[in-house]
Amino acid sequence: MLVTAVLALLGFGITPSNAATTITVATAIGRQDNSTASVSGYVVGQPTATSTVVRSNFPNDFALALADSATQTSTSAMLYVQIPAAFRASYGLQSNPSLLGKQITVTGTLAAYFSHPGLKNATAFSGGGGTTDPPGDPGDYYAGAEGKTGAALKAALHTIISNQTKLTYDQVWDALEVTDQDPNNSNNVIEIYSGRSIAKSSEGGGVDDWNREHVWAKSHGDFGTATGPGTDVHHLRPEDVSVNSARGNLDFDNGGTAVAQCSGCTADSDSFAPRAAARGDVARMIFYMAVRYEGGDGFPNLEVNNSVGNGTAPYIGKLSVLKAWAAADPPDAFEKNRNEVIYSQFQHNRNPFIDHPEWISSIWPN
């Protein structure tokens, strides 16, 4: 340390061995290992599909493509960069089309995006005429909820998460192929109750296909598949057609007998329980729905109660069991990533109980 300090005083440049280094796009493409890196390249367009990058009429501010040359046109030589919400105003191409051809540096995780070499979860952008500091934790997203508890917290969260992009029921298919993608097989999705990995192409209504399961059963409030609660991907998940049918509109509770094709799942005449690894996920989706839909936007006021057999009433239970499930099965990496993908790519709102599980007991203390 003393030698380093003396050399620095004498004007010799010393670079610590752990200093961050900037890599080229070509290097980033070859290093898709989920490591963190800063990548420098030229903005050459916006990816809209695996092999498609547009250079005009940008559809939104959600992504850009980098290359080592400003004139590059081959997508195989491009790195697809996901732009988190905090950076879109400064680096989204719809808002900043003049960035095309500019050199920028982005720091983030080297991981596939649009099933193509990419950079995700960016924490810093610089160059191109501006610098944006990292947003850090989505704490600023919840600024309006800070210091609140109970009913006041629930009301504040409702206001925050109601600011969202709404999908159509057809768009849900495409969203689920991204939000629930199997991290070990990009051609598959993971079914929520069974945990089975199934080909994305097997979507549909046939035996052993997967379809769109409403975790908050759509008959509980009779909202159907209308845009709103019926298409909110925070509670819509892939599931085997037969398992979806077995769950039906049952409430959630422990007990019952085994469910075919759903290892670890049980059901009886008025309730259903998924595999243990999905129970916390289910609980947090239910709590999200009870906060998001409060009856002020033309849809029923959805509430959690401590009953089963709720039928078509806008209630779902069993509250005490759901709270226990949430505590026993905290958010894992898959669930956290899903929340982030919904926020950054689709609805642009978050499930607060994934980010802050402690808020469950604050809103529902008993």
From TrEMBL:
Pfam families: DUF6359, Endonuclease_1
Keyword hit for Ribosomal protein: no
Signal peptide: 1-19
Keywords from the named record: Hydrolase, Nuclease, Signal
Domain called Endonuclease YhcR N-terminal: residue spans: 23-126
InterPro entries linked to this entry: Endonuclease-I, His-Me_finger_sf, YhcR_N
Highest taxon of the lineage: Bacteria
One example GO MF annotation: nuclease activity
Keyword set includes Nucleotide-binding: no
Protein name in UniProt: Ribonuclease
Origin species: Kribbella jiaozuonensis
